[in-house]
Write a structure and sequence with these properties.
single chain, alpha/beta, Signal recognition particle alu RNA binding heterodimer, srp9/1, five-stranded mixed sheet, 2 helices, 5 strands
């Protein structure tokens, strides 16, 4: 599996036709003492025979109210796509 980190939200959206489901997962990143809030969006996709995770970071400068951001994300409507709190992670397996 490959993880593709997209820099621009516009590019992230342009690849939505490759997704495998109607879910886009999101999580809040810990920014330490920084006043910004960062949200990472993920979805699972397929390119030919490869499973791929697309991800993009949304930065909310000087916004610390996670509940307000979460409420807006939960209200998001784009066709049948839903934003869901959660994470996608890559798993490596090795057989010796």
């Amino acid at each position: 599996m490959i993880i593709i980190k997209v820099e621009k939200v516009e590019d992230f959206v342009s690849f939505l036709d490759r997704r495998l489901g109607d879910e886009i997962f999101y999580e809040f990143l810990d920014t330490g003492g920084n006043l910004d809030t960062i949200v990472v969006l993920y979805y699972l996709a397929r390119i030919d025979t490869l499973n791929v995770i697309y991800q993009v970071e949304l930065k909310f400068p000087k916004v610390r109210d996670r509940e307000a951001i979460k409420k807006k994300l939960d209200e998001f409507e784009f066709g049948n796509i839903r934003l869901i709190p959660g994470k996608l992670r890559e798993i490596y397996m090795s057989i010796s």
